[in-house]
Write a structure and sequence with these properties.
Layout (H helix, E strand, L loop, with lengths): L1 E6 L2 E4 L4 E9 L6 E7 L6 E7 L7 E2 L7 E6 L4 E6 L8 E9 L2 E4 L3 E6 L1
Parallel strand pairs: 2-11
Antiparallel strand pairs: 1-3, 3-8, 4-5, 4-9, 5-6, 7-8, 9-10, 9-11
């Protein structure tokens, strides 16, 4: 099993920044990919960014966040980050961390991000 804990959410004004963190624990050696997803009120969960976890590779971003969000990782700390700049009210959502291990998927509990206009 893999456990994921997100942190760093909060309330910010439009144009501001936040940095989310996702700490993985448990069978972290089995993780081969990680990513960020978000779910706004009344909407389905959507992809934000994904990255390979144990190798170098391209980080994929949703078109809606390209140029504003940057995802990174620190394997030594089993932590993934999401730097969010130029935040917009449309970015308001619960942000979830996701880890993949073969066919298994793991999710964190989510952290709320609210962007006021």
């Amino acid at each position: 099993q893999v456990q994921l804990v997100e942190s760093g959410g909060g309330l910010v004004q439009a144009g501001g920044s936040l940095r989310l963190s996702c700490l993985a624990s448990g069978r972290t050696f089995s993780i081969d990919r990680m990513g960020w997803y978000r779910q706004a009120p009344g909407k389905e969960r959507e992809f934000v960014a994904t990255m390979p976890w144990r190798s170098f590779g391209r980080i994929n971003y949703a078109d809606s966040v390209k140029g504003r969000f940057t995802s990174s990782r620190d394997n030594a700390k089993n932590t993934m980050y999401l730097q969010m700049n130029s935040l917009e009210p449309e970015d308001t959502a619960i942000y979830y961390c996701n880890a993949g291990s073969g066919s298994r998927e793991y999710w964190g509990q989510g952290t709320q991000v609210t962007v006021s206009s």
